[in-house]
UniProtKB/TrEMBL annotation:
This is ABC transmembrane type-1 domain-containing protein. Signal peptide: none annotated. It comes from Enterococcus phoeniculicola ATCC BAA-412. It comes from the Bacteria. The keyword Cell membrane applies. Belongs to the binding-protein-dependent transport system permease family. GO terms for biological process: transmembrane transport. GO terms for cellular component: plasma membrane. Keywords: Cell membrane, Membrane, Transmembrane, Transmembrane helix, Transport. Gene3D superfamilies: MetI-like (1.10.3720.10). It is found in: Cell membrane. Its main location: membrane.
């Protein structure tokens, strides 16, 4: 009996491995080999315009990246861009998601329309916002001047103090529908009985939100936050389409810097080194956060038991 059970388990594992093999092979060629190539190039001199420039240089590429006067500025821009985008998407996604989960007239139509910013191609969205924010003929400046919010047109994407924040707001507008859809799905999984019980106990809307809604959305929100930290921090196309990292590097992030190293300076070694640095930064976040939560949990258990 046990032998038959073991044989069946072994057969299931073999079948699972066979079905997973194409996907694993695809991921190896799509991600694994390019990643190994990037790590390899980061320790070598490599140029697109000078084939004779090659050979192992150790940590020299990393030293050049860290000594670049723009590295700290671009790292700061990356952090600001990522944090503000994720926080803005979270707050807006929660607000709209909860609102669209209520029994209101036209809820289906609103749910259908909310996805529009997400499905619009990035190139189209970026160019459209660039035109709308143009200081000469943009509708945004026209409306702000007419309503008295500003006295004269502002070059939002061409001003050093407003470029990064403006691109961040545009990114929030485009991405928050994804949060809304995911949060709506999470809200459907919360039993109505919990809300009814909380209401009977006299819990206010705020108490129900913090004690029923948020705990029920914990897994969904945590997954979204981690996903969008990665997606936003490595985002290239949206910033490039709107500002190209300008003016004067005011909105340049690490992905834009990697592109500049590779496609403007043709220095594959430095671009690969900076790519490895960005990977290490993201990996450290995903390792340190779970590690901190695990250690904190163990310390709380010791404190309770002690």
């Amino acid at each position: 009996m046990n032998s038959s059970k073991l044989t069946k388990e072994r057969s299931n594992r073999i079948s699972a491995a066979i079905f997973m093999a194409p996907a694993i092979i695809f991921m190896i060629f799509l991600i694994g080999i390019p990643l190994i190539q990037v790590i390899w190039d980061s320790f070598h001199a490599k140029s697109l315009t000078n084939p004779t420039l090659n050979g192992f240089v150790g940590l020299d590429n990393f030293k050049k990246v860290f000594s670049d006067t723009l590295f700290v500025n671009n790292l700061k821009n990356t952090v600001v861009w990522t944090v503000l985008s994720v926080v803005g998407e979270l707050l807006l996604g929660l607000t709209v998601g909860i609102a669209l989960n209520q029994k209101i007239r036209g809820r289906t139509a609103f749910r259908s329309m909310i996805i529009v910013p997400w499905i619009v191609p990035i190139a189209v969205a970026g160019l459209t916002w660039t035109w709308m924010l143009n200081p000469d003929y943009g509708i945004i400046n026209y409306l702000l001047v007419k309503t008295g919010f500003i006295e004269q047109s502002v070059y939002w994407l061409g001003n050093k103090t407003t470029a990064l924040l403006t691109v961040t707001l545009i990114n929030i507008w485009r991405t928050f529908p994804y949060w809304v859809i995911s949060i709506l799905a999470g809200l459907q999984s919360i039993p109505d009985d919990l809300y009814e019980a909380a209401s009977i106990d006299g819990a206010s809307i705020i108490h129900r939100f913090f004690n029923v809604t948020l705990p029920g959305l914990k897994n969904v929100v945590t997954t979204l936050i981690f996903m969008h930290i990665v997606w936003t921090s490595v985002n290239f196309d949206f910033i490039w389409i709107t500002t190209e990292g300008g003016p004067n590097y005011a909105s340049e992030t690490l992905p834009i810097m990697i592109y500049r190293y590779a496609m403007k300076n043709y220095d594959i070694g430095k671009s690969s080194a900076l790519s490895v640095v960005l990977i290490i930064i993201l990996l450290s976040i995903f390792v340190c956060v779970p590690a901190y939560r695990f250690i904190k949990k163990k310390m709380d258990e010791v404190r309770v038991n002690g």
